[in-house]
Amino acid sequence: MRCSSTPTSSRAATAARSWHPARGPVASSSGLPVHAAHGVADLDPGGIDTLVVAGGTGVDRARHDPELTGWIADAAAGARRVASVCSGVFLLAAAGLVDGLRVTTHWARAEQLAREHPGVRVDRDPIFIRDGRVWTSAGVTAGMDLALALVEADLGREVAHAVARELVLFLRRPGGQSQFSVGLWSAQPATDSLRAVVSAIHADPRAPGHGIAELAACAGLSPRHLQRRFTAELGTPPATYVERVRVEAAQRALAGGDDPVEAIARRYGFGTAETLRRAFHRHVGVAPSDYRDRFRSTEEQI
């Protein structure tokens, strides 16, 4: 709030209030109590500028509460914009607010959201997304990235940059959720032949025999049939799957050791550091060296 009071502000600072289905102390998932000064019954839904719906372990119960989701729908109808943090998007979906929109959530729940709400366009990688007046973010600290974006939208880049400096945050966090997620391609195929292919890839990601002809022979299928079946069951072509598994292996090596990027590239089937760099940008959104700096052991940085 100190930063938003600078002369560059083009809008007055907005008062923030928190609501809970019932007023009073609320036990958080960590055991720390949070005091809800207001219950939803205390508020006229028409008086909200920006409705932000938080996520957490209580979402799975709350999204089946018709009184709460109805209140969210009513509040959203009169709000200038609507936002969710982490799994809070499940409440927006239950309230019918994101049908046909592009949204994101915590990477570990993206597949569930897409499965349960096929009318919602789920993008698992971005830190946050804006689609019209609806903003959604990835998990936990991504809510801070979202908040900075809301500040920038209302008060301008200079104010948002001042807030980011004060809180020691990136104004634009580099990369997406792929640099944090584990096993995004871990869905198991339904057929034994494709399971054999997937097992062979994971058993030795760097093996040279992961071309379409070799994998087709492993599955007992023609290359064209494998390409079609693999893409249908796992949502990606075999070559992309192999590359992603190799990238994940390289991620672990970068975070857990000091081997040169060139050596890691050769070890996991990329051949050259440049080929690894291009694959990293495709799947992770950052360079291998940047990934290492971000995720290596904290003991090495002290």
Task: Please summarize what this structure is.
Residues 1-18 have a biased composition (Low complexity). With 302 residues, the protein is of the alpha/beta class. Helices cover 44% and strands 11% of the residues.
Main structural class: alpha/beta
Looking at CATH, the homologous superfamily of the largest domain is Class I glutamine amidotransferase (GATase) domain
How many strands in all? 10
Reading the helices and strands in chain order gives EEEEEHHEHEHEEEHHHHHHHHH
Percent in helix: 40-55%
- Uncertain regions spanning at least 5 consecutive residues: 1-10
- Overall CATH architecture of the largest domain: 3-Layer(aba) Sandwich
Radius of gyration: 23 Å
Question: What's the CATH first level of the largest domain?
Answer: Alpha Beta
CATH topology of the largest domain: Rossmann fold
Average pLDDT = 85
What count of helical segments does DSSP give?
A: 13
Distance between the termini: 32 Å
Task: Summarize the topology.
Blueprint: E1 19-20, E2 24-27, E3 33-36, E4 38-39, E5 50-53, H1 59-62, H2 66-78, E6 81-84, H3 89-94, E7 102-103, H4 110-116, E8 121-122, E9 128-131, E10 134-137, H5 142-155, H6 157-167, H7 192-203, H8 212-219, H9 223-234, H10 238-256, H11 261-267, H12 273-283, H13 288-295
Parallel strand pairs: 1-4, 5-6, 6-10, 7-8
Antiparallel strand pairs: 2-3, 9-10
Helix pairs in contact: 5-6, 7-8, 8-9, 11-12
